[in-house]
Amino acid sequence: MNCVALLGQPNSGKSTVFNQLTGSRQHVGNWPGKTVEKKDGTYSYNNAKYTLVDLPGSYGLSGNSDEEIITEKFIKGGEADLVCVLVDASQLERSMYMLADFAGMDVPAILILNMMDVATGQGKKIDDKLLSERLGIPVLPFTAADGKGFEGLKALIEKELKTPHKLITAPELGQANGSGSADSGKMLSDGNAKYAWISEVLENVTKTSGEDYKLSKFDNVLLGPFWGKVATIGIILVGFLAAMLIMSPFMSVASMLPKLLGAPIANFLTGLHVHPWLVSVFSLLIPNTIYFCISMAAFVFGVNIVFGFLEEIGFLARAAYQFDGALSKLGLQGKAVAPILMGMGCTIGGASGTRVMDNWGQKMLTMMVVWAVPCASIWSVMPVISGMFFPAWGTALVCLGIVAYIFVLMFVVSRVFGKKLVPEDSRSGMIMELPPYHKAHWKYIIKEAWIKCFDMFKRALKTVTLVSVIFWRFPSAPPEMWRAVFCIRSEPLLNL
Amino acid sequence: MKLSEMKASSHGTVSSLGRDERFLNRITSIGLTEGARFQVVKNDRKMPVLVYVRETLLALNRKDCEKIEVMEVRG
């Protein structure tokens, strides 16, 4: 079996390459004995099968987190026949750090210069031939998000597995500079040695502009302390409206299924003298289950398209900057803003969005906080139901009370579980790159959202079928009862 | 002085990143090393500090910035 591993910093586009190569042939599990997600998948090329392993997202290989230890062990263990190191071509110097960390390992590799479209857009030129000569491994200029160069990548992987190349140069490490404790001193001097090596390797390969950074007018507003928050929240609200527009056709078609299919199927089966028990399975249980699952998947689809777009253009990183202060009070950091906001559209979407968090503890804590956030259908149920029992002012009061309660709940959850999941000494503040604004690659965004939504549909089908069967066999519950239970969450949205 | 005290659009070099290994590892891998030259792009009260280093715009948590010692460079 040909085993290929993907290595790169979180912003290098690693998951894009992984998803585009494997499509839906993925498997998500855990690394043995660890709470770190393991993603692997397969693809075929020229009648040969390849296994692709997505190494856990980390910034380096210095063994400072479970993710880094796993990645280092995996590469050193020789399980991968080839390691594809991904770097961001638009920030070559900084993102080559991963390659500098990898350089000490004696494993065949190729270097993928991803996001060439962004680099070219910034007027950057990279001499990939010279770079390849210096490193001794193939260097491939690439734009993963436009989905075009993948045949070339597969061909290169095939070739390199037959005639592998290893790095011929590495930074000189291990010279302690004497300051501080032995370990931190070594870390500092190693860090400098790695960047020195990078500058050496990149000399005449690309030019580093020494110009100052100027915030665009738009960023000046968006990153401002007050109006920035207003604009950020405004953009997200517009995003939710867009998500609802995207999912409403799917949901309205799905909502017709039970009505359209129920009676004809019942008539048809009764005509065949099928046992009434089976008739109700096919005419009630199955159409309603499918309806409910499609509605849920449509939620996930809409929310993922919008958030995929907001992430890709670089907006979500700016939202994280805005809310880092508020979230650090919950023991979280700015990055948690994306899953929490997604949770306002759909709790499932929010929970799956927690994968952006740095480690397991933060991921779990974010997920718990996401649960406290009411999803779109609860937002619409709140005023409707309270409106039935209270006059207008009472309804407003009830809704306000619920919103206040949400914040209290988030606070309590973070107090109760925060210390355990994210211990005080392991709390790390936001250290995050604000990427330049990108153009969105729609095809990729839709494909990603589709994969997630299909995955969601399959999982929902299993759970909902089980739960519907329980309700349906409940002797005192008429069939309408479970239908009402399942529809109540999605119904109000259909009437918007 | 501390990184958190630098004014927007001023320049500086890092003199000390502290001795916390976990923090050192993160901050080094994202581009900030001792001796590195940087530009402060934005520094608003109660907000993370925006720093431009190695052609990358970084948002750094305010509390972390209080641990980073820097020297201002003029011109």
List keywords for this structure.
heterodimer; A: 496 residues; alpha/beta; Rossmann fold; 2 domains; seven-stranded mixed beta sheet; 8 strands; 60% helix; globular; disordered C terminus; B: 75 residues; alpha+beta; SH3 type barrels; five-stranded antiparallel beta sheet; 2 helices
Notes on the protein architecture:
The complex is a heterodimer of chains A (496) and B (75). Helix content of chain A is 60%, strand content 9%. Chain A is of the alpha/beta class and 496 residues long. Chain A folds into two domains: 2-202, 3-Layer(aba) Sandwich (Rossmann fold), CATH 3.40.50; 227-494, no CATH class. A seven-stranded mixed β-sheet of chain A has the order 2-3-4-1-5-6-7. By secondary structure, chain B is an alpha+beta fold. Chain B has a single domain (3-73), classed as SH3 type barrels (Roll), CATH 2.30.30. In chain B, 17% of the residues lie in helices and 36% in strands. Chain B has helices at 21-29, 62-65, and strands at residues 11-16, 37-42, 49-53, 56-60, 69-73. A five-stranded antiparallel β-sheet of chain B has the order 4-3-2-1-5. The longest helix of chain B is centred in the middle third of the chain and has 9 residues, at 21-29. At the A-B interface, helix 4, helix 8, helix 12 and strand 8 of A face helix 1, strand 2, strand 3, strand 4 and helix 2 of B.
Could you write a compact summary of the structure shown?
Chain A is an alpha/beta fold and about 500 residues long.
Mean pLDDT of chain B: 90
Helix proportion range of chain A: 55-70%
> How many domain units of chain B?
1
Low-confidence stretches of chain A: 488-496
How large is the count of helical segments of chain B?
2
* Largest sheet descriptor of chain A: 7 strands, mixed
CATH architecture of chain B: Roll
The CATH homologous superfamily of chain B is named Ferrous iron transport protein A (FeoA)
The biggest sheet of chain B amounts to: 5 strands, antiparallel
Question: How many angstroms does the end-to-end distance of chain A come to?
Answer: 53 Å
- Reported by name, the CATH topology of chain B is SH3 type barrels
Task: Indicate the radius of gyration of chain B in whole angstroms.
Answer: 11 Å
Q: Could you tell me the radius of gyration of chain A in angstroms?
A: 26 Å
DSSP strand tally of chain A: 8
User: Which term fits the overall shape of chain B?
Assistant: globular
- Provide the β-strand percentage band of chain A: 5-15%
